[in-house]
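Figure 2 data, in text form.
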Amino acid sequence: MKLLKLKGKVAIITGSGSGIGKAEATAMAQEGAKVVTNNRKPGSEGGDAEITARQIKDMGGEAVPFFGDVGDFETARELIQTAVDNFGKIDILVNNAGTLPRTPIWETTEQEFEDAIRIHVRGTFNCIKHACVIMMEQKWGRIINTSSLVWLRQASHGSYAMAKAGMMGFTRTIAMDLKEYGITCNAIAPVARSRIVGDAKSIARFTQLYEAGLITKHHYELATNPPHPETVPPLLLYLCTDEAADITGHLFRIVGGHVAHCCLPLD
């Protein structure tokens, strides 16, 4: 009999209508977690929260969809409450919702910048703010923030880079704040195909960057032929177990079957 690593746990995965988030939600359900799926609206390109929840239930799991923009404070509260109302608690929060403006700073609109900050930074804050109170009471919780290494070395992604760098700093601070309550907070920087990575628009943009000499051949090949999203969940599942109770405040790079621990100064 398979030992279910997350049996009895309740998880929320934002941005789980397709791509990485969908792969994470499905993998958690396969390990016994009850899942709340989420994306902004029904009928989104590539899939939505209802489709992901239905697939989980078809596999024999338990899942409830929630539509709404986590960048809105009250909507994020309702998302967390959905887990409590349906499953009695919230143990795991994966902040995966995102948007990817791909323009140099002189072409970036104010709205593109605002969207990047609202969804990545404010959305992460909103969900953690509402979920951590419940986790603190139960003295157990796992928070995973989906960041990126774009902020280290990629042209034409200024708004996205700022948002993802902010998420990483937030992850480190939250980890310190919540450690005494049995809650861990880590970040992952995955490279995998999604509705905004590996699509025709993305490939065209990275081709321009490569031809202009702004990215390396390796970076170009990875960006235009990214790994499958199912390569991301294995590490995430481990970080959500009791065995990973001492791992907090870290950033992990995930590319295909390879995982790297990104060393950052602690002092």
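Caption note: The CA atoms of residues 42 and 48 lie 6 Å apart.
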